[in-house]
Write a structure and sequence with these properties.
Blueprint: H1 21-43, H2 45-48, H3 55-73, H4 86-112, H5 117-139, H6 141-156, H7 171-180, H8 188-209, H9 212-224, H10 230-246, H11 249-267, H12 271-284, H13 295-303, H14 307-336, H15 349-356, H16 361-371, H17 377-394, H18 404-438, H19 440-452, H20 456-470, H21 476-486, H22 488-493, H23 498-510, H24 520-529, H25 533-543, H26 545-556, H27 566-588, H28 597-611, H29 620-643
Helix pairs in contact: 1-3, 1-8, 1-18, 3-4, 3-18, 4-5, 5-6, 5-7, 5-18, 6-18, 8-17, 8-18, 9-10, 9-15, 10-11, 10-12, 10-14, 11-12, 11-24, 12-14, 12-24, 12-25, 13-14, 13-21, 14-26, 14-27, 16-17, 18-21, 19-20, 20-23, 21-23, 23-26, 24-25, 27-28, 28-29
Length: about 650
């Protein structure tokens, strides 16, 4: 889901050459096929028609198609862009063939694997090798290296000294297990991607192609355009609305940023700041309920809780994130004297609503199906997609509406945009399988628990750094899958609320999108803003600083994830908002007037003190009170000086 409006060829850092003629001819059909299979499987049509299939058959067929698309479009080295070497053509054919073969043979292999060890080993080797190589081509060397380390451990686990020693696996058993077992490639990650994520990619595509991104931007402009720094506030609101559905920080930047970044530049924001605000706002869409870029459904599945519980837990941290970005955009506007958006560029709210009201329908349908009908996520997404398909074919917004060719294009783009996450899902499945088969999961958890036994904050800090490093360049769902497996067990073992641990790793995994050196969302925004990528990433970290703090807060204060008495939840939320506001004013250097160095330091100290939850330790409420008094005194003096 993290792919921008692109084909897999855009994995290269260089501007890609057009795909080879063979790739141009075959990729659309493969993408349409992959997208159609995903939608049909999510809809349950096969079951209704009495077709006797198991989930793993569909998963391996979809994965085989993904192999073919990647080998056709993503070369072994960037210098081969635009060509199709003979070995890639053969690999594409073999990738598709192994998918079809396993689709047919999987029930037999699953039933009689003990009697067919050679066949199981051969197909396992092929699936594992193809997954590893397509991962390297699409996700880069970082995740590839992580996977190779796990593979080495799988073969040498018994030679590792100390607490990380495990059970080594024989090569034939190893490959057969990873390729066929439901705790390997065809495990939970690929299951959820095939049944849930693909349908949400389709929903995002249909909204995009029918004019949804323009509608959300216009609505944001109508609401926020007349306020100070309205152009940036438009970006924050529009990116938050669309980003929740798009499932991709990068594609969200590419979709809404082409409108909001020039608008911010015209309003007076500098190039790095305009790019940074868009990058931070777009990244936040992945943590914004009700969809959270499909991460909410994955979290519910892994935690074995109801989807509604995930949404309730995620809502306050997400609101804090966007309130923080919104406040900083306003403070930056006050500091630099940025005016509201010109009146002639602000659309009439009622007119926008009249023309695009139907874009709200899929949200209503989705939430109603999830909360009131208790439908599975894939069914709810299908209902939402069906509603916008029907309405998008009847109505038109800014010249855009859905036609049969457009729907075919949506299917094609759904298939093409799914290939990266499918491969990473298969990779996550292999890592889970290795952790389970060798016993590394227990050893790793025990080791990290020992590290944090005397200091939970040390473990949290270490986990945060690991999450940012592992999340670099990865799609949202892949970030969460990998980190949920590797990083949450030690936190839960030390007594952290399970849902708080999962949200913690999701937040810090996503922060890799704006954190150098591989800040994909910030780099994409920098390109649109025509500014330096690193400068934009640094500015994004400044605007997104609360996202580095809030996860620690809801770990030590579960009130922020709706655990506790309503009055306690309200107090923690309100003081957190005040703390973010004052600390942001200190960092920006402006509140009601420009601030002196002493005022800035006082606001930062007082704001951070207000952010400290009263649950943190016995006398934490005294720190909060002191922070509130300090900020109140500085603000009073500031207003008195302003009146003079």
């Amino acid at each position: 889901m993290e792919s921008v409006e692109k084909t897999p060829t855009e994995s290269s850092k260089q501007t890609p050459a057009p795909p080879s003629p063979v790739a141009q001819a075959l990729t659309p059909w493969l993408g349409i096929t992959l997208g159609s299979i995903g939608l049909l499987w999510a809809s349950g049509v096969a079951v209704d028609l009495g077709i006797d299939l198991i989930a793993e058959q569909v998963m391996v067929l979809v994965l085989g198609i993904a192999f073919a698309i990647i080998y056709l479009n993503v070369p072994a080295h960037p210098r081969y862009q635009g060509t199709l070497p003979w070995y890639d053509a053969i690999a594409a054919a073999l990738g598709l063939a192994i998918g079809i073969y396993m689709f047919i043979r999987y029930p037999v292999l699953l039933e009689d694997i003990a009697y067919r060890p050679v066949e199981g080993t051969i197909v396992g080797v092929i699936l594992v090798f193809f997954t590893i190589e397509t991962l390297r081509r699409t996700a880069g060397w970082g995740l590839f290296t992580v996977l190779i380390v796990f593979f080495a451990y799988g073969f040498l686990a018994d030679l590792i000294p100390g607490q990380l020693q495990g059970r080594a696996m024989k090569p034939d058993t190893f490959f057969s297990f990873l390729g066929i077992d439901t705790t390997g490639i065809l495990g939970i990650p690929l299951t959820i991607i095939t049944t849930v994520v693909i349908i949400f990619i389709f929903l995002g595509q249909v909204l995009l192609r029918s004019g949804g991104s323009e509608f959300f931007t216009d609505i944001a402009a109508a609401i926020m355009g007349r306020s100070r720094g309205g152009s940036a506030k438009i970006a924050v609101v529009a990116s938050g609305l669309f980003g929740s559905i798009s499932g991709s920080a990068v594609s969200n930047v590419a979709s809404t940023g082409v409108i909001t970044i020039p608008l911010m530049r015209q309003g007076g924001y500098s190039r790095p700041v305009a790019g940074a605000i868009e990058a931070v706002a777009s990244t936040g869409g992945q943590i914004m309920p009700p969809i959270m870029g499909a991460a909410a459904f994955l979290m519910a599945e892994l935690l074995e809780i109801r989807y509604q519980e995930v949404i309730l837990a995620a809502i306050l941290p997400a609101l804090l994130y966007y309130i923080a970005v919104f406040l900083q955009a306003d403070l930056e506007a006050g500091k630099t004297g940025i005016k509201p958006v010109p009146e002639d560029q602000i659309p009439a709210f009622l007119l926008v609503l009249k023309q695009g009201w139907y874009f709200i329908v899929p949200f209503v349908v989705l939430i109603y199906a999830l909360f009131f009908l208790n439908s599975p996520p894939e069914t709810a997404a299908l209902f939402g997609a069906a509603s916008i398909v029907v309405l998008g074919m009847v109505f038109r917004y800014k010249g855009k509406n859905l036609t049969v060719p457009t729907l075919v294009l949506c299917l094609r783009r759904t298939g093409e945009m799914s290939v990266d996450i499918l491969v990473i899902g298969a990779t996550a499945g292999m890592i889970i399988g290795i952790l389970d088969a060798t016993g590394l999961s227990f050893g790793l958890t025990f080791l990290l628990v020992q590290v944090g036994e005397g200091n939970l904050f040390l473990l949290l800090g270490l986990t945060a750094v690991i999450c940012i490093i592992l999340g670099m360049g990865m799609p949202t769902t892949a970030i969460y899958f990998l980190l949920a497996v590797l990083a949450t067990p030690p936190l839960v073992e030390l007594g952290v609320e399970p849902i708080a641990a999962h949200l913690f790793v999701l937040y810090f995994g996503l922060m890799s999108m704006i954190t150098p050196p591989v800040a994909l969302a910030a780099f994409t925004a920098a390109k649109l803003a025509e500014t330096g990528p690193m400068g934009c990433a640094v500015a994004a970290c400044r605007f997104g600083w609360p996202a580095f703090v809030v996860p620690f807060l809801f770990v030590i204060a579960p009130n922020l994830i709706m655990i506790g008495e309503p009055i306690d939840i309200a107090i923690v939320f309100v003081t957190a908002i005040a703390g973010i506001w004052f600390a942001s004013a200190g960092m920006t250097g402006f509140f009601t007037v420009r601030l002196s160095l002493i005022q800035r330091v006082a606001y930062i100290i007082g704001g951070l003190a207000l952010l400290l939850p009263s649950q943190a330790f016995a006398s934490a409420y005294l720190v909060e009170i002191a922070g509130g008094i300090l900020c109140g005194v500085v603000l009073t003096l500031e207003r008195m000086n302003k009146q003079k």
